[in-house]
Amino acid sequence: MPHQWKAVGLALLLGSCWLGARDLPAPRIDCAFPGGNIIVDQIQGDTVLLRQDLRDTQGNWFYWYFRVRKAAGRTLSFQFTKGNVIGVRGPAVSVDRGRTWRWLGADAVKDSTFRFTFPRGADEVRFCMTVPYVERNLTEFLRRYRRNPYLKTDVLCKTKKGRSVELLHLGRLDGQCDQRVVITARHHACETIASYSLEGLLASVLADSDDGKWFREHVEFLVVPFMDKDGVEQGDQGKNRKPRDHNRDYEGESIHPSVRALRELVPRWSEGRLRVALDMHCPLIRATGWEAARDNRAEDLQFSGVSNQAVWARVEQFCRILESVQTGPLVYSTKNNTPFGAGWNTAANNASLKPFDEWASEQPGIFAATTIEIPYASAGGGPVTAESARAFGADLARALRRYLAESRDLQPLRD
Questions:
Q1: pTM higher than 0.70, yes or no?
Q2: CATH class of 26-128
Q3: Is residue 322 within 8 Å of 404, Cβ to Cβ?
Q4: Strand order in the sheet with 102-103
Q5: Can you tell me the distance from the alpha carbon of 332 to that of 88, in angstroms, rounded to the nearest whole number?
Q6: Superfamily of domain 135-406
């Protein structure tokens, strides 16, 4: 073949390849599943412009979770148009419809964009700013204990949209316990990692171990895994929900059914034996553009203090115990705590908007009431995963057992 015809043939081949890439069908991107959240602005070839759905959120926030289909074998870029909402380990990725997750890594991220090469044969790949946790996950966890006599499942109430808000009782259930503990999670729907640590704590209470046996002899737990159940399933931010979010609904007449029901139930159930109230959260993510997280506090396991200093002093006692007994990969240090009056934790921020821990600190019999923040992706430099978060939950249980045992002779702060 003459040289000029070879050149023409090569040009035609390259043109054909370019046309083929240009004419590929657009990938299918959606969030039509529990916990999903995304708005796709535009798809330009191999670049997807998208943003988190803020719905009824006051101001900005960062939760997103979506799936991509019809993209096998391609490399796509995902550019967020509503700020940099990608954490320090990149997005979490699942290739098995959300059952298992791994961090894509910071190397795949540049500013507010990440790139991903879809494996050939991958029918569906999911991406999330953290490791998601919805009702399905809780159901799978509880199924393992369905014959355990020390666990009772119930319903706290129905949500505004008709969903059941799960209520768990575990530990000593015959009414003869020495002490009672209330644990809540997901007042802010997007704070998913807290749920994995809650699993680790609950598993320790139900385990055939010295700690588990001690709990089942002395303590009854009341647990609400999803305070914002509608938000969890709908994929809402939950934080700063208008007119007020679930964790700012403990003053006056509560507008959220779960908060209203919990406020009615706890005083009746506790019978003056409520000793510890723990609310489980996640902090900000650390990513360029989130000014409040640039001091790296977003990567610290930390407790926040209530205004009652006597209650906070007892929380600090628990914190010192946790620091001494922890064995898991996520390392907690008491120096990371945020006492009342420090940083964001001020009277001005809480004015007329009482959170759960402040309300709990007023309950009869209480020793310690607090909030814990468990980071979304990185804690103390180590990766946060479902497994490491559960291990931290086990550390919490170990510390709680020792704290309650050592506090049995203390006088309640409120009768």
A1: yes
A2: mainly beta
A3: no
A4: 28-30, 65-69, 124-128, 92-94, 102-103
A5: 19
A6: Zn peptidases (3.40.630.10)
